[in-house]
Amino acid sequence: MKPAPFEYHAPETVPDVVGLLAEYGDEAKPLAGGQSLVPMLALRLTRFEHLVDLNRVPALSGVERRDDTLVVGAMTRQATIERGAQAQAVPLLGLAAPLIGHVQIRNRGTLGGSVAHADPAAEMPAVALALDAELEVASPAGTRMLASADFFVGNWTTVLGDDELLTALHFPVWSGRCGFAVDEVARRHGDFALTGVACGVELDANDTVSRVVIALFGMGSTPLRARAAEEALVGRRPDADTLDEIGRLAVADLDPPEDIHASARYRSVVGAHVVTRGLTRAVQEART
Amino acid sequence: MSTLPIAMTVNGEPRRGQVEARKTLADFLREDCVLTGTHLGCEHGVCGACTVIVDGAAVRSCLMFAVQADGADLTTVEGLAEPGQLSPVQEAFREEHGLQCGFCTPGFVVSVHAFLAQNPTPSRDEIRDALAGNLCRCTGYQGIIRAVERAAASMAG
Description:
The complex is a heterodimer.
Chain A: E1 7-9, H1 14-24, E2 28-31, H2 37-42, E3 50-53, E4 63-66, E5 69-73, H3 78-83, H4 91-96, H5 103-106, H6 111-117, H7 123-130, E6 134-139, E7 142-147, E8 152-154, E9 157-158, E10 165-172, E11 177-186, E12 193-203, E13 209-217, E14 224-225, H8 227-233, H9 240-251, H10 264-287
Parallel strand pairs in A: 1-3, 2-3
Antiparallel strand pairs in A: 4-5, 5-10, 6-7, 6-10, 8-9, 11-12, 12-13, 13-14
Helix pairs in contact in A: 6-7, 8-9, 9-10
Chain B: E1 4-10, E2 13-19, H1 25-32, E3 51-54, E4 57-60, E5 73-75, H2 88-95, H3 105-118, H4 124-131, H5 142-156
Parallel strand pairs in B: 1-5
Antiparallel strand pairs in B: 1-2, 3-4, 3-5
Helix pairs in contact in B: 2-5
């Protein structure tokens, strides 16, 4: 047995989960799909006295359309998002899901687990940030809504308190002439991205960009919105030269990480192309 | 160290155990059920050798704790065919040289069973994508891909 010993809890309701989290504080960790947490426990990169398993809490799973919002329970499996019809209302979810690990990982891995784990090179945190998803968080004190832009603090770190649980993500549903893309460069399919982008574009009747969102991953300690590049693209026709310029602008002020897999310079150069490629695909889709 | 009682169905048979919470499902299958066909390579979710089917979905049994499978319905490589028989997938792996040392093979075979159950007529690209979560250091994968194609064809009848 590789992980250090822990006490196992399998509550069936959200109040029971947050009650346990409050009781044990930083000695407790919620166990979602376990596809990141269990390896970290096995390698003893981390250890907790208590694991609170979320897999027996039915209220945390499911996809529901509420007017212009898609509400996705935090324990909804990535495979469910990939294959399910309901999640198609938010195309970025279905575009990002197949890029996460492998099918055996996505059969267990969850949307909320990925976002709360906050790996800076992961796809789903960037999707949440790109779409300004509202994050529903429960604690013994009640429920609060957090903006994605306020959620990510740093590598694997969020604003969630010890007694708080991410329970659902609320995604705005775009309408009109819009297109989306997730693009990334990874060493192998299923690996964490060296650099990647989740983006969405809306065109008006004149083929001018009326709305655009660009979120980068693998380019800093959190997913990052390229707001200057977004502002520069609104009101313009997205021809090839313009999208080249926007790609360069999106990475211009970044300080990407440097590691054995890629230098910071590599991430910047390739990241600019990935943004251009993603936007090009999103624009093509919006035009059709 | 305290232990917890668990009960599940493995290859159609009820199994009970008393396990430490930190015991992975893979270790429970191998040590408590003595179903050693499920192999452990990396034990942190990379290699896919420990793939089993839990409630219809292929998962890595090294990334689940046995207590999490309490009440679940599992299929391991031992449950894919009658004793002494080969399933169409196993038969195809033999015919197409889809294995050499055989260590990774149970994970591949289980993954392919789950894959073909969902997608009985896959394209070569879909096969490659489905196999991406299993590592093989001997074959170079070409024989495995052919084996999946042969298995799909033979199962289609």
